[in-house]
TrEMBL record:
This is L-lactate dehydrogenase (cytochrome). GO terms for biological process: lactate metabolic process. Keywords: Flavoprotein, FMN, Heme, Iron, Metal-binding, Mitochondrion, Oxidoreductase. GO terms for cellular component: mitochondrial intermembrane space. Its main location: mitochondrion. SMART domains: Cyt-b5. The lineage of its organism: Eukaryota, Fungi, Dikarya, Ascomycota, Pezizomycotina. It is found in: Mitochondrion intermembrane space. Its cofactor is FMN; heme b. It comes from the Eukaryota. Homotetramer. It comes from Westerdykella ornata. It is an enzyme of class 1 (oxidoreductase). In the N-terminal section; belongs to the cytochrome b5 family.
């Protein structure tokens, strides 16, 4: 080893130096051109030791980046384990083409549809599914348990139909609005979604730039891949950003985060209240297990459990004891409006009004938490009449998120009384597949849909939208399609209708 521990005369480490330390007895990894001895840290790694051992003796940057905030190593690994710079020209490049799955993915990327072939938000999802890395796709697309709530979020909108008005002058349509005291050009915002760099190497700042172009508000996640300051720095000319907060067990840390965000100019604080424990997203777990441990036999059962992956690992700080009695404290440490994200019934909305928060997001975390939680749009239809009955509809701003893919979905929510809606996965998919131009186009498509549909429903401005423009009678009907119902889909024989004799069936278009 030509490593010199004397700081004054440091010689760079070589790839060969690192490669020797490739076992659990001596485990070195490279991150961003620097070497780290993580041997003693292995048992403590919240994501388990297996994932680190996969990169023992190698460059782990690509795996490390999306799921660790930039200052992780400085914060959690003792300085004595920071071994110094590595001469990266001596490090063997990991051939991406070697992995047959990666090779196929690269082939699919080459054959991707051009951006202009994406006509709606679902198209981005279809492309992203084919071109994203398997583990990233699994993390973004998964929902909890049987993913019934995740599907319900989208299909709930199909149970609401319009009652449009005719002969309204809609030559000029204006769908700008105000959320939490700020003007915005459209009644939707980019909601907080963790780990942006899994989908794109630049991460959340892509969403910031696109949001700026369209004058849309962005909610910054606590568990972003970029640092909070990087995301704030990427904003321009008074662009509005909100902070999503996972509350830390250590309230001093939480207070620091809140006050830093306020000083940096964040305009609202969204406290996530639907995740005292992270949901069990089996698709995500399965993909991690395939990737990291498929040929590792588990003897203790422990190994399998730890493959639950990044999300759970990095969220271990979240305080499950958070309760209503903490709300006054939050109100006392900041002047930012406080919004509870993840409220799911009218009783809790009323309580939120009583404790004096400024808003709620009716949300089930994109179907990633409690399966069989109802959709935000259904809860909205339950909440607004009760608020109106009490004359409380202006005491609090009501937002919803989950499953919103079309401007008609947004319009339905606004008709029922939402101030605005959050959109999560579609922007992640647009970013993962096409980068900034993708998110830009996704936003533009929504804008175009918005203009056309406002005209067709007979509303020239947001204030014209009201409950009499929608028929919600079907909303309470829940019919769950169970995608992982192995009995229904794989075991019971399907019922088949009569077949044509020997004529070829007409192919589907
Ligand atoms: C990949 C992913 C990561 C998410 N991360 C967070 C998070 O860190 N904090 C949070 O409050 N909500 C998080 N959410 C939930 C979203 O804020 C939002 O409630 C949900 O995505 C809305 O549903 P949609 O994806 O169908 O639009 C996440 C959602 C996804 C899909």
């Amino acid at each position: 080893m030509n490593h010199d521990s004397n700081n004054t005369q440091r010689v760079k480490l070589t790839g060969a130096d690192i490669a020797k330390h490739n076992s659990k007895d001596s485990c070195w990894v490279i991150v961003h051109g620097r070497a780290y001895d993580v041997t003693e840290f292995l048992p403590e790694h919240p994501g388990g030791s297996k994932i680190i051992l996969k990169y023992a003796g190698k460059d782990a940057t690509e795996e490390f980046d999306p799921i660790h905030p930039p200052d992780t190593l400085d914060k959690y690994l003792d300085k004595s384990k920071h071994l110094g710079e590595v001469d990266m020209s001596t490090v063997e490049k990991q051939e991406k083409g070697e992995d047959p799955e990666e090779k196929e993915r690269q082939e699919r990327i080459k054959n991707m549809p051009i951006l202009e072939q994406c006509y709606n938000l679902m198209d981005f999802e279809a492309v992203a599914r084919r071109v994203m890395k398997k583990t990233a796709w699994a993390y973004y697309s998964s929902g909890a348990d049987d993913e019934i709530t995740m599907r319900e979020n989208h299909s709930a909108f199909h149970k609401i139909w319009f009652r449009p008005r005719i002969l309204v002058d809609v030559e000029h349509v204006d769908f700008s609005t105000t959320m939490l005291g700020t003007k915005t050009s459209m009644p939707f915002y980019v909601t907080a979604t963790a780990l942006g760099k899994l989908g794109h190497p630049e991460g959340e700042v892509i969403l910031t730039k696109a949001a700026h172009k369209h004058n849309i508000i962005q909610m910054i996640p606590t568990l972003a891949s970029c640092s909070f300051d990087e995301i704030m720095d990427a904003a321009q000319d008074g662009q509005v950003q909100w902070l999503q907060l996972y509350v830390n067990k250590d309230r001093a840390v939480t207070k620091r985060i809140i006050q830093h965000a306020e000083r940096r100019g964040c305009k609202a604080l969204f406290i996530t209240v639907d995740a005292p424990q992270l949901g069990r997203r089996e698709k995500d777990m399965r993909s991690k297990f395939d990737d990291v441990g498929s040929n590792v036999q588990s003897t203790s059962g422990d190994a399998v459990d730890r493959s639950q992956g990044a999300a759970r690992a990095i969220s271990s700080f979240i305080d499950p004891s958070l309760s209503w009695k903490d709300i006054p404290w939050f109100l006392s440490v900041t002047k930012m409006p406080i919004i509870l994200k993840g409220v799911q019934c009218v009783e809790d909305v009323l309580r939120a009004v009583e404790v004096g928060v400024h808003g709620v997001v009716l949300s089930n975390h994109g179907g990633r938490q409690l399966d069989f939680a109802r959709s935000g749009i259904e809860v909205l239809a339950e909440v607004m009449p009760v608020l109106r009955e009490r004359g409380w509809q202006d005491k609090i701003e009501i937002f919803i998120d989950g499953g919103i893919r079309r401007a008609t979905d947004i319009i339905k929510a606004l008709c029922l009384g939402a101030k605005g809606v959050g959109i999560g996965r579609p922007f992640l998919y647009a970013m993962s597949a096409y980068g900034l131009p993708g998110v830009d186009r996704a936003m533009q498509l929504l804008k175009d849909e918005m203009e056309m549909n406002m005209r067709l429903i007979g509303a020239a401005k947001i204030e014209d939208l009201n409950p009499s423009m929608v028929d919600t009678r079907g909303l309470g009907m829940h019919t769950a399609v169970v995608p992982s119902d192995t009995l229904g889909l794989n075991v019971y024989d399907p019922l088949v209708g009569p077949r044509m004799k020997s004529v070829k069936e007409r192919p589907k278009l």
